[in-house]
């Protein structure tokens, strides 16, 4: 599976459901069957997950920092940058800014393009990004070095040049102690929701996907400007409702795959490792992998969030 800029988690969904089916009966944890992690299908899923991660979270934040940097180039939060892969970039095509003096929201209407240069994936995104810059939980109109919190609310529509389109929203809270500066401890909480309508193919495989994808980010903690930083703790939980219809080539793992169901995947951060578990309600799989790809720091692997850095 290829990495999908901005919505890479979709590939996680596809590879996982290609092996777990669509069980929907209510069961207890003790009733779950332990999946076979030595099977060829599992190896395929593991490798694909390792390429795609849950980086929708970090890429959404990257756009927020780009908007803040355009409006407040010298402000502390504006100097933050998400540690994205070297082959990923974002081009801020246009934005309009206003400030609501009553509610304390900085409001940006934007159009941006996310580009993955290796696979030549481009995703065009249009929407509204509302940001509160906080000092001790109080919104301020002019962010400075005292800012120690952000609240982010984003609504958007997107279209990928190869796959399809969708809509979504993101809601984050980011707090920093003592503030947004080098070696500060940062905690991220929030959720995202995306509705997707995709058609894609690889080799002899073709698939149609309709999916509602929800992520919950809970107490993901890391330090700013620490080299190769992975979250020291926290979780990201993905819940998907999926309608997937595939026709595969001869011998394909996706051969005539048809799924209508739901599943849950959980990433648990443990510093330099990430534990991934998932279930379809009848079977569960769990494994641990390095948070960063040690062969290439530019590939954040399974980090989902690989930390922030301070722009010079």
Keywords:
two-stranded antiparallel ribbon, mainly beta, disordered N terminus, 15 strands, 312 residues, globular, 13-stranded mixed beta sheet
Explain what the structure shows.
This protein is mainly beta and 312 residues long. It is built from 3 helices and 15 strands. It has helices at residues 9-20, 40-52, 56-71; strands at residues 33-34, 80-82, 88-100, 105-116, 121-135, 138-139, 149-160, 164-177, 185-202, 205-223, 233-247, 258-269, 273-279, 283-290, 308-310. The strands form 2 sheets. Strands 1, 3, 4, 5, 6, 7, 8, 9, 10, 11, 12, 13 and 14 form a 13-stranded mixed beta sheet that branches. Helix 1 runs antiparallel to helix 2 (40-52). The longest helix is centred in the first third of the chain and has 16 residues, at 56-71. Mean pLDDT is 76; it is low at 1-27, 48-53 and 293-303.
Number of strands: 15
Mean pLDDT: 76
The count of helical stretches stands at 3
Helix coverage percent? 10-25%
Q: Indicate the multimeric state.
A: single chain
Rounded Rg? 20 Å
Shape descriptor reads: globular
Low-confidence stretches: 1-27, 48-53, 293-303
Percent of residues in β-strands: over 45%
Query: Helix and strand succession?
Result: HEHHEEEEEEEEEEEEEE
Cα end-to-end separation: 35 Å
Query: Quick one: biggest sheet?
Result: 13 strands, mixed
By helix and strand content, what is the structural category? mainly beta
């Amino acid at each position: 599976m290829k990495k999908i800029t901005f919505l890479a988690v979709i590939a996680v969904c596809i590879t996982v459901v290609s092996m777990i089916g669509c069980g929907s009966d209510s069961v207890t944890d003790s009733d779950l069957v332990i999946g076979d992690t030595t099977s060829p299908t599992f190896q395929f899923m593991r490798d694909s997950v390792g390429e795609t991660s849950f980086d929708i979270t970090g890429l959404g934040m990257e756009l927020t920092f780009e908007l803040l940097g355009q409006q407040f180039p010298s402000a502390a939060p504006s100097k933050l940058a998400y540690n994205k892969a070297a082959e990923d970039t974002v081009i801020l095509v246009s934005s309009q800014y206003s400030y609501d003096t009553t509610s304390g929201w900085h409001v940006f209407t934007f159009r941006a393009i996310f580009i993955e240069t290796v696979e030549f994936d481009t995703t065009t995104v249009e929407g509204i990004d509302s940001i509160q810059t906080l000092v001790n939980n109080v919104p301020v109109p002019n962010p400075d070095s005292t800012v120690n919190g952000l609240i982010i609310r984003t609504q958007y529509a997107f279209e990928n040049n190869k796959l399809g389109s969708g809509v979504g929203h993101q809601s984050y809270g980011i707090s920093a102690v003592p503030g947004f500066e080098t070696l500060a401890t940062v905690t991220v909480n929030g959720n995202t929701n995306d509705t997707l309508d995709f058609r894609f193919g690889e080799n002899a495989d073709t698939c149609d996907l309709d999916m509602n994808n929800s992520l919950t980010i809970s107490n993901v903690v890391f330090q700013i400007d620490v080299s190769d930083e992975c979250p020291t703790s926290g979780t990201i939980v993905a819940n998907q409702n999926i309608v997937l219809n595939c026709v595969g080539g001869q011998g394909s793992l996706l051969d005539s795959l048809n799924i209508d169901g739901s599943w849950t995947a959980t990433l648990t951060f443990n510093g330099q490792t990430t534990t991934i578990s998932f279930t379809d309600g009848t079977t569960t799989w769990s494994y641990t992998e390095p948070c960063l790809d040690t062969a290439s720091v530019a590939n954040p692997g399974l980090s989902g969030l690989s930390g922030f850095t301070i722009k010079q």
